[in-house]
Amino acid sequence: MASKNNKKNNKSTKKNNTKKENYTGFIKSRNFKWTVIGTAIIVVIVLLAVFNPFFEPPASIHPDTYYKVSDGDLLSNGSSAVFFLSWIGCPIGATDSWAIYSAINSTSDIYSHVMLHSAYKKDIYSNGVTGQPGLLFNGNFTFTTSGHKFTFYPLYMYNETMTGTVNNKTINGTLASYGLSLINQTYPAKVAAMFNRYAADITYKGHLETTFIITGPHGTYILNAFMYDPVSGGILGTGSPDYPNWTPNSPQHVMSHLSESKSIADAAGTFMGYLDKAQ
Known about the structure:
Layout: H1 2-51, E1 66-70, E2 80-86, H2 91-105, E3 114-118, E4 133-137, E5 141-145, E6 148-156, H3 175-186, H4 189-197, E7 203-204, E8 207-208, E9 211-216, E10 219-224, E11 237-239, E12 246-248, H5 251-256, H6 262-278
Parallel strand pairs: 2-6
Antiparallel strand pairs: 1-10, 2-9, 3-4, 5-6, 7-8, 9-10, 11-12
Helix pairs in contact: 2-6, 3-4
């Protein structure tokens, strides 16, 4: 009798063990599948975050605002650069030049690459006698920030009074079309194409305004017009900030007091932030 009961118990134990083994195997199998699925999802999310194939550049841009216009660099070689577009007498270019200089000069000494200058005396931020204080950038130069190398490419389209080329030669056609043709001849194709893409947004009263593009392996950004607003009583000038009620200070004065301007320092910091995003 006892042996029969033992046989029954053995059979019952074997069945239970078989069920447990099957159940455990089933759980392990399901866990493995969910692990594979979860890993695949994470990989897809990471790839989307890195390459973002769904990125769409803005259809248009507005002044005084940074816009991301590409997920990668426009040079197709992994390098980084700033393409600065302006004209010799531009009060916006003069204003922005201080923030750009302050930013870049904090990483590399670029004093030899700039020239003290005053913008057109009859334009905004002028008083008919002298124009907005600023800097002109002399040719291309390189600088390093956060261990990453950038090249700065300035391009001036028109002369002091916007009546001709920088060499005071007659411009055939409109100022805007001449500016675009100069961009196409001077800058790499993809960079020129980006300026052309937003040509309508960076054109003011028939001419191209100061605009710059920051590009690097992790993205490309564009800004048109002012990096900060000139304020009365600041280092740039006094009076109402419009022609002819604005009294600009000399570029020598601004250079010697540059570290005292919070608005320029803030604009420089923002500019550096976008350099970091692009590199």
